[in-house]
Amino acid sequence: MKTYLVPVHVDPVKPMNPSHLRHILYVDFLYRQFKALGHDVVYLYNRLCFDVSNQVIKLAKFLESRKSKVETSLDIGLQYIQMTSERFEIDADTLYEERAQQQTHLHGYPYYSILLEDWKREHELLDVFDPGFRSPRRIRLTVQEVSTVLNDLGVIFDARRIDGNIYLDLTPEGLPMRKIIGVNEYSYNYLFIVLRELFEYVKKGDEVYFVFDPDLSLDYELLKRVLKKYGCHVFNLTTSRISLGGKIQSARKGGWQGYTTKDILHRYTPRFSSNSIGLAIRHYLLAKNAVHKQFDFSYDEFEKSFEFAQAVEKKYGSLSFSELIEKVYSPNSDYSPPLTRSFNIWSTKIEKNKSNETKR
Q1: Are residues 3 and 237 in contact, defined by beta-carbon separation less than 8 angstroms?
Q2: Beta bridge partners of 165
Q3: For a tag on the chain, would you pick the N or C end, based on fewer CB atoms within 10 A?
Q4: First and final CA of the chain: distance in angstroms?
Q5: Using CB atoms within 10 A of its CB, is residue 216 exposed (0-12), middle (13-18) or buried (19+)?
Q6: Considering the entire predicted model, what is its pTM?
Q7: Residue 111 and residue 46: Cα distance in Å, rounded?
């Protein structure tokens, strides 16, 4: 039996803010925890999934049409805000053609050399596993093959002869129908991309952990029901957004300036080691404020988590986060209860979901 960790991909159209960072750190924690506990875990990530996303393609076309000169991640994020404010759109034919090109050539976009390089450096500094920013994979299953699997499961309504669309249909279970692809093979949405990835790998009896924003809960309930019918054990985990300046809003509207991962690292790197910053930010975003809790990011409150980080470093030395995980979950762990409790807080939601799943 394998354990598949399947997070929502953060689209590379802006710098990572605290909400993105919390999501990525939580997924990283789960991945390392499962490995330390002896699971045969697969972090299912494919850069192609965001290469073909609507927002990424739109931004690439916007930068191209405006001949925008971008030199930093901040420049890219500000252009993304501008694109949104101008309500810039691309036609369906352009979208489909670009998706076909990306699926064939896996070339990504020029601005990735700035944004994804920043993400990679931030992952390295915070000791976060790189799931493959530079390693897109071709999707092997065809639209027809995925449709056949869904049809065999009895969860599809094929209305191509009526309105040109294919829908997930779990209406007998009280859930609304959801369009996943149109008549054109490149007219899919992200749900179809997820299913296409999963059906290539998962087998009956495997565990699947979805990690996503609460706003996507209905979509992921649909995915959960489909995968359960496929024979998998499925668990839905959410990471709530963090407000900035008292507001919770989409990154496309701005408000994240001064709060990016790059800003945080720049602010504290002269004073603290990267290990200490990594442990402090995990303590603040995951333990002190549970992943399902919404709160307002505060540098003053965040700095209090350095007391925890420094106490850990003083007692146990400058271990990396991955080394700490292995120690905490080792059968012979001699770590103090406070540290163990902090790590256990982060995994509590997993156990609750498993318990609820068993009861059902």
Answers
A1: no
A2: 159
A3: C
A4: 21
A5: middle
A6: 0.91
A7: 18
